[in-house]
Amino acid sequence: MAGEVPESLRICVADRAYRVCEYCLVHEDDLYHGCEVDHIISVKHGGATTESNLAFACFHCNRHKGTDLGSIDRVSSQLTRFFNPRNDHWSEHFQSVDGEIVGLTEIGEVTTRILEFNHPERLKLRRLLADSGRYPSIGALALLRE
Question: Is 97 a member of any domain?
Fold first, then answer.
């Protein structure tokens, strides 16, 4: 299959991300379903199965994103692309406030909304992790510095 990710590439992507979801910044050890490799630009839209087009994503972020590339921004009514972990810096587009992920830009807003970062159950998990010192994790802090 064109979109199948070889195990060696999957390990490379996971290690590069410190095993943290590159979208919501939760470590895979703190997730029931763990993380998986996401095609930033999906195969159906011509995205390649290469290191530069892959991100480490939790089950929830990956399922909500699906093969979408973006959405309509509610303020500008313009088609806006999603956050791209290979090209964008998380802290330029998002801020975490008491576990809630707030979009700071149009890219941040559409990504936050469509990937359902602040679904009540996901917000509850991040708050519990924050209370125990696990969110953001050391890996997430490393991603934020890059």
Answer: yes
